[in-house]
């Protein structure tokens, strides 16, 4: 998608602690985790810019400096970028209200900073304006809504009900299961409904309040959508890009190796492997369906499958990691160790061989 979606400013929520992504988020905020060599949130910035957005406010909390140091004032990208920082965690709506002073009196896109999607933003705005809604939520289909907030709509595409984590008896046979996809359009009036300086959740507090006065639209689509909030979904996001499933990111092929990574000629890089900048893969090592973080070193004869390594991890010769082992930055896995997941190795830890 490119062109003018009709909304030119956006708030990206990037202040969460990313607890489900520990230890990868011990040293870096979740939106700055790399997706094939670029910070994840930069993919969102590109998507917004292509839709005609020219002003982006990052609403920060946890580890704000990494984000501001990377994007600066946005001039290098031809964008205006600003930053606000929660004085204490303000929640997903409180963090939008905290950005208000950097916004104009116009509609704004709001994005959760951990969603990879090729959503048609222009279609979302058209639906919003067609309804005259105060707020409009993008929806995505799921097979099982029990872990999410189910959003029901009427025939016009207005929200009729929010059902948080529905039990089996709350589901209507045959109804489509659609959840909040973490992308919204908000009018100034909707933003004014959020009390400032307080902890407020947009999902639990603001949207139900606005829906009561009939002001919330919702647009379902079958676009690509993934929440990268857990290590498994972060790994899957890489596999989706390799498979060419994410509309605006071209697939680099069945695997991706950063141009400056060093892969020994006797190593095997299988489909689904992503080897980050400056990483080194030793002789006879085997990497399959895994993310190898920047600067990490995989020793001779080591085998890594279905796992995620942070930055500057050292995997000793002959070690084996498989089935969702998540390794924090700077950790060391001793030669010959075998780690079968699901397992998290803390940031900086040393794992000895058995
Ligand atoms: P978990 O701790 O693993 O649940 O992750 P999280 O902290 O990122 O929370 P969640 O996935 O619910 O957050 C959705 C989006 O909103 C993420 O992009 C967060 O960075 C952001 N976010 C959540 N809470 C806050 C907050 O209190 N302040 C700000 N500024 N952003 C937030």
Helix/strand layout:
Layout: E1 9-13, E2 34-35, E3 38-39, H1 40-50, E4 55-60, H2 64-71, E5 80-85, H3 91-97, E6 108-112, E7 115-117, H4 121-131, E8 135-141, E9 149-153, E10 159-164, E11 178-186, H5 188-192, H6 202-212, E12 216-220, E13 225-227, H7 231-242, E14 256-257, E15 262-263, E16 268-269, E17 273-275, E18 280-281, E19 286-288, E20 290-292, E21 297-298, E22 303-305, E23 308-309, E24 314-315, E25 320-322, E26 325-327, E27 332-333, E28 338-340, E29 343-345, E30 350-351
Parallel strand pairs: 1-4, 1-6, 4-5, 8-12, 14-17, 15-18, 16-19, 17-20, 18-21, 19-22, 20-23, 21-24, 22-25, 23-26, 24-27, 25-28, 26-29, 27-30
Antiparallel strand pairs: 2-3, 6-11, 7-13, 8-11, 9-10
Bound molecules: guanosine-5'-triphosphate (GTP).
Residues 13-21, 30, 59-61, 86, 89-92, 95, 112-114, 229 line the site of guanosine-5'-triphosphate (GTP).
Offer a concise description of the structure.
By secondary structure, the protein is of the alpha/beta class. Helix content is 18%, strand content 30%. The protein contains seven helices and 30 strands.
